[in-house]
Structure formats: C-alpha cells, structure tokens
Queue: 2 jobs
Job 1
Amino acid sequence: MLTPHLHRSAATSELLYENVALTDIARQFGTPTYVYSRAAIVDNFRAYKTAFAKSKPLICYAVKANSTLSVLALLAAEGAGFDIVSGGELQRVIAAGGDASKVIFSGVAKKSDEIALALSHNIHCFNVESEAELHRVNEIAIAHGKRARITFRINPDVDAKTHPYISTGLKSNKFGVAHLDAVRLYTLAASMKGVEVHGIECHIGSQITKLSPYVDALKRLLSLVDDLAARRIHLHHLDIGGGRGINYQNESLVSMNEFADAVAAEIAGHHLDLLLEPGRSIVGDAGLLLTRIEYLKPGETRNFALVDAAMNDLIRPTLYDAYHAVAPVLQREGAATTYDIVGPVCESGDWLAKERALVLEQGDLLAILCAGAYGMTMASNYNTRTRPCEVMVDGVDAHLIRERERFEDLIAHERIVV
Ligand code: LLP
C-alpha cells in the first residue's frame, strides 16, 4: 500500500516520505502528527489537469477534505478553484491567497451571513439546494445591490454504491433539488432580479470507484440542460461534483483517463464549461498519521497495540468502518502477531485498524496511511486531547504547517461561572 512518494530506505528499510525519514519527523515534532507530501498533492492535482486537458475544467478542490492553509495555498498556486461549504471555509481560502472568483459555494443550509460574505467576495457561483435557499440568495443579493450567479444542485436519484453516510445522490438524501422539480425552479430563478442562472451541478457521493454512477448522473443532468435550452434557459457550466475514490485497500478504481474521456464524451456538443469538485482524490493518499505505540497489551481473544493517536484524531475507521493500511516505520524481523490498533480514548469504538498481522514492539512508530483527506478536518478535542500538529514534507525538508494544539487553546474561549 505504499505510494510513489512513500517508500522504504534501501539501506535501513525504514519508511521515508519523499526524502524525509518518518523517525526524524517523530523526533522533531512528536506524535501523533499528520504528515503530507507536497509532491503527492501536486501530482494528484496535475493528474486531473492532464486527464481532463481537452475539457479545460475549473477544478474546485473540495476544501472540507483538508482545509489546512498550506494545502490550500499550494493548490491555489497550482491554479485550483475551491468548493466551499461554509463562510469559514471561504475565509480559509482567502487567508491562503486563493482566488474568490474561482470559488463555488455548496451546502444545504447556508446562513444569511455566509451568503452575504460570499457575495461581498464576488464568488463564482452558489450551488443552490432548495427553493427556500433560492429566495434567500435572491433577497440578500438585491439588498446588497448584486446579482448572484447560481447553479442548482440536482439530486439525480442515482446510487453511487458507496457507504450510506457518504452517498448523497439518492431521493432519500437531504441534498439537492429533485430532478422533476428542476425546470420549475430554473424558470422561477430566471425571473428573479437578484440571481443569474449560470449552471447545473450534482454530487452523488464520495469514494466512488465505478464509472457508471457518474455517467448515469451526467445523462440525467444533460437531458435537463436540453429541456431548459428548449425553454430559452441557457446554462454556462456543468459541474459533476467530486467523489472519485482512492486506493485504501486495493480497490479497483476506474482510471482517471477513462473517467475524463467518458465525461468529455457525454458533454461533447453541449458548449458547457466543465467544473469538478474533487477532495479526497487530491489529498487522501498524500497524507498519513504518524503515531507511536505506548503499550502492547496481549489478550485472551485479541491483542491490542495501544497508540497515542485516537478516534478524535482520525474518526473514519469508527465512523464509516473505514480501512486504513498500517505500516510500521521500522520493519522488524520475526513472527507476526494479529493486533487491533487502538487509541487512549475511553470508548470501545476508539480503534484505527483491526486484525493486522504485524511485528511490533512498545515504542515503535506506525504510519496510518491514506489519512490526508477527512483526517485533520474531522478531528476533535474529545477527552480534552489536543489535535495533532501537521507537517508537510518537500524533498529533503519537513515544514511544520500547523503547531500542535496546546491545552491553553482548548480552554481559551471558556468562562468559569459558578
Ligand atoms: N462536493 C460536494 C458537494 C461534497 O459534498 C463533497 C464531499 C465533495 C465535493 C468532495 O467529495 P470527494 O471528492 O472528497 O469524495 N467524511 C467522509 C467524506 C464526506 C464527503 C462529503 N462530501 C469520509 O471521510 O469518507
């Protein structure tokens, strides 16, 4: 499960990220620590650009996957746009030097102040998800003397065949407007003074490994584009959302070229600009969580490796039953034992990996792989644990890009009232 940028030293067989030894990172910055590879992030972003070269899409990186400023700044420098879901994410994009005119605003329950903030920065487009939201965007835009470009997020009722918590394009999900209601809503929007109808969007889920759900959704969207054109409502862009899966455990993924070619073939002849909203596939396999084994605890039915990272640092395993490969930083010789890798949090759900055959000793370092997406952004302070620091490796250098939280940070906004 190693990636091109994560490899073992030929001399010592210890794990290197780019050209930095993970043992050195642990020594310098402590553990648990999120470590990202700059080159891997750039490669992932450029893979989209190359595969989609003919369609020249605006690639709006989904900020929720990893919103650390250095990650955003790196992608901004690569020419990325950004898909945001809150005013906070917009402020992060701006703080990182991102271009607000390449920002699209998704999300089912945008607050008035968030809409006003986005309007004041002249973002590219609002992805509207309900009639009520359409009215709100229209009213706020009029009050600010602006016209908001809008796209409807269409719920195409397509099964993305992924985990139910991250499947979003079914009728039963809260997302988007119903396909059947779309023409009425576009007609209503076209009559409003505060909005300008601009595009059409869907996002059907995350960690999608197959091509067919995308093609099915695209066909549903394009038939709507044609219906609307017949009613003299002409759209400028089509946004196929994010959701491309990554290789957590040797999944068989549709190749990027096949994906890009299929999308290009479907939209050919429609004169629409293409937008994409990838998150996980840009940063997921470009990051790992480095943790140290505090204790080994053999048991009657299970053996536990108790590490210093926990569910508050990486919640994906317990929340989605997600698999993350575990690589010992130093490779030991000997007979493997089957371990559950668990953290210090007082819950049985606090696990990072289950039943892994490994040769371990107390004090060893482990790398929890493919943790670059939805790792740090979903971390919490449960059990009054300070969130990890973050390090970006770049060739032989390791840069601290976020300090480890301190206890003082955790209590900074509290007031004792008795
Ligand atoms: N666009 C919209 C509107 C989204 O809701 C999402 C993700 C994306 C783009 C990016 O999708 P991606 O390319 O990353 O699959 N926390 C979960 C994933 C939640 C995804 C939510 N929406 C996880 O850790 O698996």
Note: The first strand starts at residue 6 and ends at 8.
Job 2
Amino acid sequence: MDNFTYCSPTRYLFGRDTENSTGEQLAAIGCKKVLMVSGHSSARKSGLLDRVEASLRQAGIEWVELTGIDPNPTDDRVYEGIGLGHREVIDGILAVGGGSVIDTAKAIAAGIPYDGDFWDFFTGKPVEYALPIGVVLTIPAAGSEGSGNAVITKKDGLRKISIRTDYWLRPKFAILNPQLTETLPHNQIVAGIADMMAHIMERYFSPTTDCATTDRISEGLLKAIIEDAHRAAAPTFDYQARANIMWAGTLAHNGICGCGRVEDWASHGLEHEISAVYGVTHGAGLAVVFPAWLTYVSQTKPEKVAQFARRVFDVRDHDDRAAAAEGISALKAFFSSLGLPITFGELGITDPDIPQLVKRVHINKGEVFGGYFRLTQSDTFEVYKLML
Ligand code: NZQ
Ligand code: ZN
C-alpha cells in the first residue's frame, strides 16, 4: 500500500425529500446569491426545480439560472455561465442534474474567480480556488457529486478533457434523493450502472500490491451494484434498489476505492474519445470499452483479472487465464442482460474510425497511458479492435 491523502469534504444528505433543504444548505455554506445550473427539461418537468426554488426562497437565497446543459457538456456553456456569474455577482453555484450539469457547474466555479481563460485548468494549470458548489443529484452515474473531477469538451476540435483536483472542485454538499431518479429512462439508469462499475474497476486494476482493505471495499461495492442492478433497472420503480445504486455510485467515485494505490484510467481515456466523436452516452461507451480492455490486459497480466473474476463473479477456475476469461464473459453477460451495448455496433457505431480514435486518445492522454497497463499506440489500436 502506498502513502495517501484522502480528503472527501462533501456533506451528503441522503433520502426522501432532502431536496427541500437545498436553500438551508446553501445558507450554511455562506451563499446569498447563486447560479443555478440545470439540464434540458427533466428537472423542470418532474417538479424538482419548483421544489428547489421554493427552498431557496424560504432560505432567502437569490438565484440566476443557466439551463439546457447538454450531455457531454461543452466549453461554450461554461463561458456563458462565467459571464453570467460575473454580471450577476454570485457567490456560489448550485447544480441540479447529473454529471454533465455538475461538471459545467464546477468549471464555472473555478472560472469565475480566475483572471485568465478557464480552459487553462484543462490544460494543466492547477485549480487553486473555486466558488462553493452545491449539488442536487438526479442520476446515479458519473459520481461527480462526490468527486474532485470535471469533464468538459472543447467544441473546437471536440477535445473531451477530464481534470482532477484534490479539494476545490469537490461539492460542499450533495443532496441524494433516490426518488428523483424515478423519471430516468432505462438506458440512462443502466449506463449509470456501467459508469459506476467502471469507476471502481479503474482503481481496482492497479500495480500497487497489498491493498487488501481498498480491494475488499471495491469488490463489495461491485457485488452490491450487481446484486441490485436488475431491480433498479426494472420498469417498476424500486426505491430501495435505487437507493443502494445511488449510494454506490457516489462511493465508486469519491476516491475511497483508490486509497493507497496507483489507479489505471485508460478505459475512461479510450471512452472519452468515443463519446466526444460519436456523442454516445458515457456509461454505455464504457460497457463496450471495459470488457475489451480486460480481454487485452489479461493476455499478458491475467492475475488481477482472475482475482476480480473469482471475488466479484464467483468464478471457480484455478487457472488464472481461464478464470480471467470466465470473469470477462460474466461481465459481458451482465451488461447484456441489462440491455447495455458491448460492441461498437450495439453502441450504434457501425463503422468506427479506429485510427482516428487512436490518434486522438494519444494526443489527449500522451504517448503511453494507463496506470496498471501502459498502453502504447499499437496496444490502443488492438483494444479498440476488440470492441468491433
Ligand atoms: O437534460 P435533462 O433533461 O436533465 O436530461 C438528462 C440527460 O439527457 C437525463 N436525466 C438526468 N436526470 C434525469 C434525467 N432524465 C429523467 N429523469 C432524471 N432524474 O439524463 C441524461 C444524461 O445526463 P448526464 O448529466 O449527461 O448524465 P451522467 O451523470 O451520466 O453524466 C455524464 C457526463 O459526466 C462525465 C461524462 O464524461 C459525461 O460527460 N463524467 C464525469 C465525471 C466526474 N466529473 O467525476 C466522471 C465520469 O467518469 C464521467 O466521465
Ligand atoms: Zn465515468
């Protein structure tokens, strides 16, 4: 196990009706006027925004709105939010939505107090200050409600870049009411499940050995997600299953599964090119990428994949290669049983431009990337080919 610092300062308010305390929470972190960021229509249609606004009114919080944030959010909306925030002199940001809304809110929160171009933070400049961020989560998926990360696509060149901060971009509070997920379409709930599993696996596949506590936390979370996934994705809304999935989604990505070890993150790099170029849902893209990456990696490094197979999917084979292969088949079968894609074709990409994806991912991630398995251009090419 390596030395580590773990700082997860977010206050989580979990359960029914918790969105009614949004105003109170904003007041508690010192906000008087906030920029409220939201997506297209779901939060307004469900009545959530009305309830949040009532709560803000009750707490005496003023607000201005930035709405219509697209999935896979882009830099133009961040610039718009920064401009609005400056004009209206706001002192905090409230995100009501999923990862796309929260990430836009985070980039705005860092951009408003900064004199330069916020994109500097996405090209290496550390975030040294940001306005406080509060979240009302509507979809268990990206884990942005507890993470220090933000992912924004620069429209010019479609560069989808992820940044990670230790402290400043972690929300001050996150309101998690599983009931708010009732309006989610099936494809979004299952994509969210794939995304949160990927967040755990990106950390699980690590070159650091002797990390039993973090390994077991990760395996336990993966098993809990697998156990409740079908109930959570069923047409009849199941509050308890959604509650377990929602909490798992937060724990998957608030850093606890990475404590004490080097993380991988190659699969997210590979997927971000797919969602940037083809506009697919991030979690659905990961359901295609992860089994392909595991297949490629297990050809030369089968041990940890075999451990994953045995502990998460109860595979019994004693031979590491055979166990790894069985575990990967079980993961694919699990994704398919939820209706997730596991090939480019199933993702709706009939003729992927693999050389272009390879070129782009190495421009964004470097000549070699991945903390567990170092992917070169020829490796990346082979992994993308395994998704056909
Ligand atoms: O815009 P609306 O109308 O709200 O519709 C949204 C959107 O179309 C809909 N939705 C959300 N909550 C709903 C709902 N529909 C009905 N009922 C509800 N309760 O769902 C669609 C997808 O929303 P989005 O915010 O894009 O989903 P998600 O949370 O999966 O976020 C994906 C984004 O997060 C990034 C991804 O790359 C992608 O851009 N990620 C962010 C991370 C982070 N900051 O830590 C980590 C992740 O690995 C990920 O990369
Ligand atoms: Zn993700």
Note: The chain is about 50% helix and 10% strand.
